[in-house]
Amino acid sequence: MRDTRRVRRVLVGLLIVALALIGLSYADGKSSLLHGIKAASASVFGGAEHAGSSVAGVFSSSNSSSSQVTKLQQEVVRLRAELSGANLSKTEYAQLHQLLLVAGAGGYRIVASRVIALGQGFQQTVTLDVGSADGVKVGQTVLNGQGLVGSVTAVAGSTCTVLLADDSSSVIGVAVAPGGQLGYVSGPGKTSGGGLMKLQMLNSTSVLKVGEQLVTWAAVHNKPYVPGVPVGTITKLLNRNGSLTAIAQVRPFVNYGALGIVGVVVSPPNHNPRFAVLPPLPHPGPTVTVTVPARKPGASASPSPSAGG
């Protein structure tokens, strides 16, 4: 086809429309998670995703010359990548970095995503901007850079719904580090004060200690939770009140009221990471030893220094 003015005007018009659609998709906050995020996660865990494929389809259906179309496609992809990078805040970059560290330590293959909406019903849920088109399925585990977020309960083409681990209907099989004693944790729900979970052990001989940490334990077919994801720390041992096994309060690692960048585990680890993903325990402060010199017989004690001293 001849390179006429009319052809050039059509190409310019298509480029403007494509860029306008891209701008709108980032302005309304309902688009899939930024391709910069997906590319970052894919560089660690496999298969990079290609930005601008829908725009490429628009251009390929036109009758413009192939060389010009290719150049315009490349320009649109470049501009979209710039928009993606600019749309990530420093906080989100930090969250993504921590998420990738956790996923790498546990051997989880993830699809990184962003929380775009909160559930309005009785259950505590959030909506993510990834769906079946990204390999997300019902029953998959969701985590962030601190630990367990929840599990996927519904999936659409480009979004999914996640039931948070602190919902009252959530029951999570856990193991206590470092001994591996098994139990289950239930979420506090919206009405429970302090957001503390409740731990119930399975074995009557289990002995718990304040400060011990919990991770998810292996579930059937790794659903709804893959093993080894950090859950929380025991903060208080509770009176059994007739229960045959130990009970405790657990403070979750995740702040469920401030979720941003999260990851859906689309492929479980090859081996159970057990406690490899847990954050290090806090180190106790240095021990200070004070030596008091022996007093000679008959000597009076030295007066204490005054406040103005």
Tell me the major beta sheet.
Answer: 6 strands, antiparallel, barrel
Total strands: the figure is 12
Shape descriptor? elongated
Helix and strand composition category = alpha+beta
User: What string, H for helix and E for strand, traces the elements in order?
Assistant: HHHHHEEEEEEEEEEEE
Helix content: 25-40%
Percent of residues in beta strands: 15-25%
Mean pLDDT: 77
Radius of gyration, in angstroms, nearest whole number: 27 Å
This entry's quaternary arrangement is single chain
How do the strands of the widest beta sheet line up side by side?
1-2-5-4-3-12
What's the N-to-C terminus distance?
96 Å
Q: Which residues sit in consecutive blocks of at least 5 with pLDDT less than 50?
A: 28-62, 284-292, 300-309
- How many helices? The count is 5
Describe it for me?
The structure is a single chain. The chain is an alpha+beta fold and 309 residues long. The chain is 26% helix and 24% strand. The protein contains 5 helices and 12 strands. The chain has helices at residues 5-27, 35-45, 53-60, 66-86, 90-106; strands at 109-118, 125-128, 141-143, 148-155, 160-164, 171-176, 181-186, 197-201, 213-216, 230-238, 247-252, 261-267.
